[in-house]
Amino acid sequence: MTMFKQLKSALKGTEYAWAQHRRATEHKPTIITAIQTLQQQLPANAEEDLQRPIFLLSAGWRSGSTLVQRLLMSDRRVLIWGEPYDECGLIQAMADSMRAFRTGWPPKEYYYDGTPPQELSGEWIANLFPSLMEFRNAQRKMFDTLFAAPALNAGAKYWGIKEVRFTIEHAHYLRWLYPNARFIFLYRNPVDAYQSYYRYGSSWYDVYPDKPVFTPTAFGQHWKKLLDGYLQQHQSFNSLLICYEDLVTGQFPLEKLDALLDINIDRSLLRVKVGSSNEGGHKTDLPFMQRWLLKRAVSPTAQQLGYNQW
């Protein structure tokens, strides 16, 4: 190896390593592609699974997710956790760890085959993995322990999670863990949602502390990223897609929620306001630049949904 190649290798890494990296990035691993691979290796068996959690996923903050959460919990059999440990990014991190799964990885020989441990001391065991079933069970056990068990102990029959940060990829991950899960995808006019958010100080995070959502651009991009996925793929889930405006004006039939979730919602809660982002019933006006930046971030999705009043 020439001195130049030695220097290049020392500073940048070997050509072999970069060739491997190019192949990995060309593959463009996502949670969805990984779950598809896992489904082939370890299909989720819906027929044998008795748990039917409810996942309420909203396209960002101030979009009515708490109202829907309250509606669902008006049936005493339901407990929906509200953005649990949100700044920890716990569920997102677990879902993101799925991205490594792909055809050929892990190799089958990495999985432990039941050989007595003392017989393995003379074998190559640098890569020795528990089974894929145990990997999935361990992830699900976290949900069962942290969310399902305390809900059942509180007397609930159904448990669930309300979130404002989960993409459609996270929904795929949750369905891999719970094949009979029910999903509600919720969205609201981004101007109204951001006006409410703006009054609260615009100080929340997508992922703490690395991904703040402090600007109309960040808010709009978050709204669009989540909603684009919901619009494109919600029909592939056992789900309902709900527009907030339809819900509060009575245009969305709550019977659909009752039927999907096997519950009985108290309709009177739609007339009860718990907390408000408005002072004296007046919305917070957005400065022109804030409004313009938001419009640019949510286009063209907002316009396609009929949100044209800027």
Low-confidence stretches: 277-281
How much helical structure, as a percent, in the residues?
40-55%
Tell me the number of helical segments per DSSP (H or I, 4 or more residues long).
13
Q: What number of structural domains do the residues give?
A: 1
How would the global form be characterised? globular
CATH topology tier name? Rossmann fold
Mean pLDDT: 92
Itemize the secondary structure elements and their pairings.
Layout: H1 3-12, H2 15-27, H3 31-41, E1 54-58, H4 65-73, E2 78-82, H5 90-96, H6 132-153, E3 158-163, H7 168-177, E4 182-187, H8 190-199, E5 204-207, E6 211-213, H9 216-233, E7 239-243, H10 244-248, H11 254-261, H12 288-298, H13 301-304
Parallel strand pairs: 1-3, 1-4, 2-3, 4-7
Antiparallel strand pairs: 5-6
Keyword list:
45% helix; 7 strands; two-stranded antiparallel ribbon; 310 residues
Protein described:
The chain has 310 residues and is an alpha/beta fold. The chain has a single domain (17-304), classed as Rossmann fold. Helices cover 45% and strands 11% of the residues. It has helices at residues 3-12, 15-27, 31-41, 65-73, 90-96, 132-153, 168-177, 190-199, 216-233, 244-248, 254-261, 288-298, 301-304, and strands at 54-58, 78-82, 158-163, 182-187, 204-207, 211-213, 239-243. The strands form 2 sheets. It has a 5-stranded parallel β-sheet with strand order 2-3-1-4-7, with helices on both faces. Strands 5-6 form a two-stranded antiparallel sheet. Strand 5 (204-207) and strand 6 (211-213) form a beta hairpin. The longest helix is centred in the middle third of the chain and has 22 residues, at 132-153. It is globular. Residues 277-281 have low confidence and may be disordered.
